[in-house]
C-alpha cells in the first residue's frame, strides 16, 4: 500500500501542476445511461435495483460519468483527474492484470483548444510521471502526434 500511495501522490501532484482539479463521480449510474454508451460491453456491467425498482449499474469506467457531468453542468472547459474504483463483470485474470473491481486513473482535458495542444500536454504529463517513477529510460513512439513533442518541449527518446 505504501508504494501505491507514493505512486498516486506523484501522479496526482503532476496532474495538479498542469492545472487539473480532482473530481469524483457516483459509483452508481442509471443502467440505461451506461447501456447506451457501452454497447456490447454493457454485458460486462454489474446491474442492481434500488428499493424503488430503478435499474442501476456500477460504473464501468470513469469517462462516461465525467461526460454526463459535463453535459448536465454545461461546462465549457475543464481539466480534471479522477482516481477511483470501477467494476467489470468479467473473469478475473492475471493475464489482463486486473480483477472485477480495480482502480482506474483518468486525466481529462475537456473543451475547445488549439489543435493538438491537449494531446501534447497529455504526452508531457506521461513523460513527467514516467521520469518521476525513475524506472529508467523509455521511448514514446509517434503516430499522428508528429509535432506534439516539439510543442511541449518533450525529448521523445529519453522521455525528459
Automatic annotation (TrEMBL):
Ranges of residues in domain Class II Histidinyl-tRNA synthetase (HisRS)-like catalytic core: 4-135
Annotated organism of origin: Homo sapiens
Pfam families linked: tRNA-synt_His
Domain of life of the organism encoding this protein: Eukaryota
Protein's name according to its UniProt entry: Histidyl-tRNA synthetase
Matches recorded under InterPro entries: aa-tRNA-synth_II/BPL/LPL (IPR045864), HisRS-like_core (IPR041715)
SUPFAM superfamilies xref list: Class II aaRS and biotin synthetases
Residue intervals passing through the bilayer: none
Amino acid at each position: 500500500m505504501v508504494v501505491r500511495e507514493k505512486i498516486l501522490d506523484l501522479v496526482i501532484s503532476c496532474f495538479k501542476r498542469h492545472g487539473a482539479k480532482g473530481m469524483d463521480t457516483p459509483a452508481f449510474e442509471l443502467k440505461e445511461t451506461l447501456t447506451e454508451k457501452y454497447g456490447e460491453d454493457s454485458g460486462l456491467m454489474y446491474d442492481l435495483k434500488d428499493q424503488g425498482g430503478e435499474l442501476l449499474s456500477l460504473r464501468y469506467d470513469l469517462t462516461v460519468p465525467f461526460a454526463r457531468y459535463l453535459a448536465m453542468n454545461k461546462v465549457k472547459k475543464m481539466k480534471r483527474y479522477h482516481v477511483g474504483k470501477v467494476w467489470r463483470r468479467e473473469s478475473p485474470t492475471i493475464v489482463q492484470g486486473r480483477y472485477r473491481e480495480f482502480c482506474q486513473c483518468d486525466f481529462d482535458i475537456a473543451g475547445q483548444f488549439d489543435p493538438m495542444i491537449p494531446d501534447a500536454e497529455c504526452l508531457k504529463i506521461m513523460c513527467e510521471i514516467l521520469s518521476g517513477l525513475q524506472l529508467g529510460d523509455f521511448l514514446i513512439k509517434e503516430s499522428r502526434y508528429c509535432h506534439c513533442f516539439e510543442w511541449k518541449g518533450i525529448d521523445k527518446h529519453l522521455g525528459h
